[in-house]
C-alpha cells in the first residue's frame, strides 16, 4: 500500500511540475511566434484538423484574457475544457470526495453525446464551407 | 470477499450492483487523449468509453467492464504513441532548425 501511495505521489508531482512548465511556456511564448512547440503529426502529414487543433494557441489567448481569439482557434477546447474541469472539481469537492476525479457523474445519454460531440467537432471543422470552416483555427 | 459462487440469486444481484459503481468509463481521459495527442486512437477510446454507461444502464455488466477495459487500453496506446510521435517531431524540428542555420552561415 505504502509503495503504491508513494508511486502515486511521484506521478502526481511530476505531472504538476510538467504542467507548470507547459503553462509557463504557453503563457510567455506565443505559439505563433516560437516554433519549438511540437507540431501536430496529423496536421503535418494529412493537413487535417483534429479536435485539438489550435488548442495551444487558444490556451495562450485564454491566459491573456482574449476569449474571442481563443474561440477562433479552438472553440471546443476553449469553452468545454474549463467547464469540464469545474464540473469535475465540483463533483470531487462537493458531491462525492471518494469518487475518482476523472469519473463524470452523468446519464449514459450525456456521456455518449459528449464523446460523439468531440468526434463530430473533429469532422465538422474539416468541411471547407462557411458554418463549419469557422470551427477551424483562423 | 468469498471466492465461490454466491449461494442465492439476491446476492448475485447485489454483488453486480457493487460492480456497477466500480466500472470507470474513461470518457474524460479519452477526450483529453484525443484533444492533446491529436491521433485517432483517442477516438477509438471515446467510442468504447461512450458504451460503458449505456451497457451499465442495460445491466450488461460484463459488456460494460469489457468496454471500460478497451477504453483504458486505447487511452494508454493513444497517450504512448502520442508522446513518442511528439518527441520524434520535436527532435526532427530541432535537427532541421540546426541544419537550416548551418546552411545559412
Care to describe what's here?
- The complex is a heterodimer of chains A (138) and B (105).
- Chain A is an all-alpha fold and 138 residues long.
- Chain A contains six helices and no strands.
- In chain A, helix 3 (55-63) packs across helix 4.
- The longest helix of chain A is centred in the middle third of the chain and has 29 residues, at 67-95.
- The radius of gyration of chain A is 18 Å and the shape is globular.
- In chain B, helix 2 packs antiparallel against helix 3, helix 2 runs parallel beside helix 4 and helix 3 runs antiparallel to helix 4.
- With 105 residues, chain B is an all-alpha fold.
- Chain B has four helices and no strands.
- The N and C termini of chain B lie far apart (72 Å).
- The model of chain B is unreliable at 1-20 (pLDDT under 50).
- Chain B is rod-shaped.
- The longest helix of chain B has 44 residues, at 61-104.
- Chains A and B meet through helix 2, helix 4 and helix 5 of A and helix 2, helix 3 and helix 4 of B.
Task: Kindly summarize this structure in a few lines.
The complex is a heterodimer of chains A (138) and B (105). Chain A is mainly α and 138 residues long. Chain A contains 6 helices and no strands.
Amino acid at each position: 500500500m505504502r509503495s503504491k501511495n508513494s508511486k502515486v505521489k511521484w506521478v502526481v508531482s511530476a505531472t504538476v511540475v510538467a504542467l507548470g512548465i507547459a503553462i509557463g511556456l504557453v503563457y510567455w511564448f506565443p505559439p505563433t511566434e516560437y516554433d519549438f512547440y511540437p507540431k501536430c503529426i496529423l496536421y503535418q502529414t494529412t493537413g487535417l484538423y483534429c479536435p485539438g487543433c489550435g488548442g495551444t494557441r487558444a490556451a495562450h489567448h485564454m491566459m491573456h484574457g482574449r476569449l474571442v481569439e481563443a474561440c477562433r482557434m479552438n472553440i471546443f477546447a476553449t469553452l468545454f475544457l474549463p467547464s469540464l474541469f469545474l464540473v469535475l472539481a465540483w463533483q470531487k469537492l462537493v458531491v462525492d470526495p471518494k469518487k475518482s476525479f476523472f469519473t463524470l457523474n452523468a446519464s449514459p445519454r450525456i456521456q455518449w453525446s459528449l464523446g460523439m460531440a468531440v468526434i463530430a467537432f473533429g469532422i465538422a471543422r474539416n468541411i471547407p464551407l462557411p458554418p463549419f470552416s469557422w470551427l477551424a483555427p483562423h | 470477499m468469498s471466492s465461490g459462487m454466491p449461494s442465492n440469486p439476491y446476492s448475485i444481484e447485489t454483488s453486480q450492483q457493487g460492480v456497477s459503481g466500480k466500472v470507470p468509463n474513461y470518457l474524460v481521459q479519452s477526450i483529453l487523449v484525443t484533444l492533446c495527442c491529436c491521433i485517432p486512437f483517442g477516438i477509438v477510446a471515446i467510442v468504447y468509453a461512450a458504451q460503458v454507461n449505456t451497457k451499465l444502464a442495460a445491466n450488461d455488466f460484463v459488456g460494460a467492464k469489457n468496454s471500460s477495459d478497451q477504453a483504458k487500453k486505447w487511452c494508454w496506446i493513444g497517450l504512448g504513441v502520442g508522446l513518442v510521435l511528439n518527441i520524434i517531431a520535436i527532435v526532427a524540428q530541432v535537427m532541421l532548425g540546426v541544419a537550416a542555420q548551418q546552411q545559412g552561415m
